[in-house]
Amino acid sequence: MKCWALLVALACIFIAPSHSGPVSLSRVKRGFHHEPEGYWSTKLTWKTKWVKIWKTEKKLIWKPDWKKIQVPVWIEKQIPIWKEIQVPDWKIVKKPVWKETQVPAWKEIKVPDWIEKQVPAWKEIQVPDWVEEKVPDWKEIQVPDWKEIQVPDKKQIWVPVWKEIQVPAWKEIQVPEWKKNYVPVLVKEGIPGEHYLGKDPHGAEYTAHDLWKKKLIWKPVWKKIWRTEKKQIWVPQKKLEWKPEWKQIWRTEKKQIWRTEKQQIWRTEKKQIWRTEKKQIWIPKKEQIWRTEKKQIWIPKKEQIWVEEKVQIWRTEKKEEWITKKVQIWKDEWKQIWVPVWKEIQIPAWKQISKPVWEKVWVKVTHHHDHGWD
User: Are 314 and 85 in contact (CB under 8 A)?
Assistant: First the structure.
């Protein structure tokens, strides 16, 4: 009660100067045309304004790049042919090999974020008012009255429950596939006609018919490889649902009772009181939103490379002959490819904001006429 009395006294001190304006205005000389009495005051209002902002977004562009590849080329080459003696030799050939590498990729994920916005709220203020009340000469009487009591009641509420559901997803699996490769193979090939072999110690010449030579051919071989494919599977995931429940609460009801009062004569008086009014204000509030971001991940990728390998061949000695033959070799070439690149760009956007503005208003003053009633 002491704090309430102190607040009322402070309010009277601060409000008293505001009523001094109309009293001073009422002392002007009255004429034929009476102007309304009042004073100037300020009022806080909120005005909406649109502000231009710049938002950063990512744009996918394609950048040129060069990739080194191997292409087969046939060249004419002079190779020797030997007779009588077969000796082993080694030759280096290139064969393709698959190598798995990791390449970057972008994946969209959801991340939480907060935005601040203005929401309306109500604030209680005290304003002066006049109320008529009756002042009694007392006598004891029984008067009905109401008393608040608590009675039990049921209230329906909603509680969150996690439910497990099946959602589709992608799984990488390995499937077999056949690929055609070529391997070098030595085969025997006949040489038609009569061939000179040499002389014996007595000078007799030796000749031979239908000699054989070895020829290198490329034999097709089917090789089993494994290719990566995506298969749809179902994975469990939890989903939030709301189910109703009944909760016991206590409800306030009024019960009629009789209390003793004093009553005599009633007279009407005006008494100044303070009543509570609600004033709308704006308060900031944070609201959670979900924004999309890109996260870099690494995915496997198979790349074909060429490795050198030694292969045993057979060469003939004693007599050397040179013939023209086409040989396949692998030549390095550069191929232009396009790779995706993310570029950040600025785009305009509009944002609505509210700002407080003080306005000047005219407040009229009304007088309460006293008729001399006590």
Answer: no
Tokens 């109500």, residue located? 122
d(CA 70, CA 91): 20
pLDDT digits (tens, 9 = 90+) for 96-155: 888 888 888 888 888 887 877 787 888 888 888 888 877 777 778 888 888 889 989 888
Helix (H) or strand (E) holding 138: none
CB 23 within 8 A of CB 331: no
b/e for 213-251, b at 16 or more Cβ within 10 A?
Answer: beeeeeeeeeeeeeeeeeeeeeeeeeeeeeeeeeeeeee
Helix and strand totals (H; E) in the chain: 1, 6
| Structure tokens belonging to residue 51 | 């502000």
Collapsed DSSP state (helix, strand, coil) of residue 9: helix
CB contact at 8 A, 343 and 58: yes
Structure tokens at 103: 């390449």
**Do 188 and 214 contact (CB within 8 A), yes or no?**
yes
- For 331-353, what is the mean pLDDT? 90
In three-state secondary structure terms, 264 is coil
Place of tokens 């698959």: 98
Q: Which two tokens stand for residue 258?
A: 């009789």
pTM over 0.70: no
